[in-house]
Task: structure prediction
Amino acid sequence: MRSPIPWIALALAVGVMLFILFSPTKTDTVSLVSADGGDPSIGEKERTLEIVTLLPRDAIPAVYNPQFNAVETANREYGDTDLVIGVEIGGEARAYSIPFLSGHEIVNDTVGGQAIAVTW
Result:
């Protein structure tokens, strides 16, 4: 029987290569101050945090022409505890599935004649 070590070494090499390829492309430093705009050194320390950008610009596609299920279909496919973002404007209602939004993060839509952006 062959030793699994070459396969483990190959998997490790591929993992390192993927990490290098998809490592953060941009970092920014942000200094936080007290919420009331006062001197952060009084009762609160200033903290410096690093914001790391993991995905390139426009890596998560927005939805510009959302398609919706009929109520009967939605009632069969979704349970009572499935999470949605609900919007009702001018008597027109929409429900945006949280699992769907997790893959797109923004849906551009028109509800009740009003242009909206649903974000997650």
About this structure: The mean pLDDT is 77. Residues 5-53 form one domain. The chain is about 25% helix and 30% strand.
